[in-house]
Amino acid sequence: MNILVYGAGVQGSYLAHVLIRGGHDVTVLARRKRAEELEQSGLVIRHYLQRKTTVDPVRVIRTLEPGDAYDLIFVTMKFSDFEAVLPILADNDSRHIVLVGNNMDTYAMQDYLSKSGRSPKQVAFGFQTTGGTRANGQAICIRAGHGQMVIGGLNGAIPFDSLLEQAFMRTKYKLNHHHQIDAWLKNHMVLVVPMNMVILFHRFQMKQIVRDDKRMRQLVAAMGEGFRVLVSLGYPLTPVAQASWITRHPRLTRWAMKLFFALPVSRLIDGTAVELKALIEAFTEERAKSDVPTPSWDALEAELLIQFQHERKKEYP
Prior knowledge:
With 317 residues, this protein is of the alpha/beta class. Helix content is 50%, strand content 19%.
């Protein structure tokens, strides 16, 4: 198959690696320094837990032209970056697109691509359960097993599911189909946003996070508040066991969070303030529709906003 991976961060790099090893003709869209790294050294991935490094040759493009046709396009990027690439995707001839990553606007994005495209578009949404960062020209990838993606369509089954199955047929990568992918992504956001608010507040100093009992309590409480907001708006909790555990056992959840932040692997979390702001703003719109109080979420958000403003004043006095 002729496949494009649009984005060459950790997520896109590992996905491209899997598809290349699956025997497909894979192209990666990257820009600036990252494009040069891929052209000069290939797709270099340090598999952190597996203690190995792989190198794959890969075709690199810097722009997606309207006439470039691919069987599948996987778009792997931050939530804050999706808006800029939607017009480019709409103007391209390829018909089957998977938007991979945090997403609070799935229906709006699908609507835009279906109505603005120069060719009919079929869209799915996914989240790849890998993490990591990039350093020295390589992607440092944290994954369990051979990697997996939670994936689904908004209107029933994914219409191009047979293409997806074909894409991963010769790999051990798992596609976990979810019939309520929009709700799954919103539930996931409720988990990651409070965590990242605390991480950015402490500037990725994980030992400080572990010692900050006040914000650890706020973090877990904010997750519970987020789940209650979703329920009040009619979204199902999914996976329900995860949400139930966090809301019923806040103390144990807090200790589990502290254990995670104490592990060396937690230092490889690659979060950005820009994406966090975009997710917070999107969830603020959801919270405005609900009458559920969110004091812990509000407190974390307010403290982080003050820090952002303070740092901005330092940068632009």
